Amino acid sequence: MAMTKWFFEPGHTAVEFCARHMMVTYVRGQFKNVHGFMEVDPDEPEKARVGATIDATQVYTGQPQRDAHLRSADFFDVENHPTWTFVATRIHQASANEFEVTGDLTVRGVTRPVTFYATYLGRWETPWWEDGRDLGPRKRAGFSARTRINRHDFGVSWNDVVDQGGVVVSDVVDVTIDVEAVLESTEPAAT
User: Measuring CA to CA, which residue among 168, 32, 50 is closest to residue 99?
Assistant: First the structure.
């Protein structure tokens, strides 16, 4: 089969994170406008290339003061590290629609291996609108992937103590990425 090239549609691709707050609840935040790519031969998905870039300056939790604190050197240090990246180094197909995507995640200039557990959600022919004109159809594919990281592994270590020995922010952070990929091109298989 042919190699397919896809780009992540930034308006429909997002990263969400979730961490415990004050030991009693969870706080969620997100990054929109995520850019990325996939190059995959459907007959050999384990040989795919996958990468993504996140604009860390655009963090959104719904609370402007918290967002500003997250952008500061206490957390994401976006002045010095405005983007985060993920580049897959290994893909294992666990079942027909489940994949383990291991790669290098870079946050705050620190790179660590991380495994995302991804689910393929399917693909569809859809309209493609530009400047008020339907230039479609275009093929889209959906994926959702999740992982759990320790924020200290990436130098995100600010914290404070609360009553009874608790902390303001948990060490463990759950991360989910929802991807809508659009088929860019198909190249004939190498012979």
Answer: 50
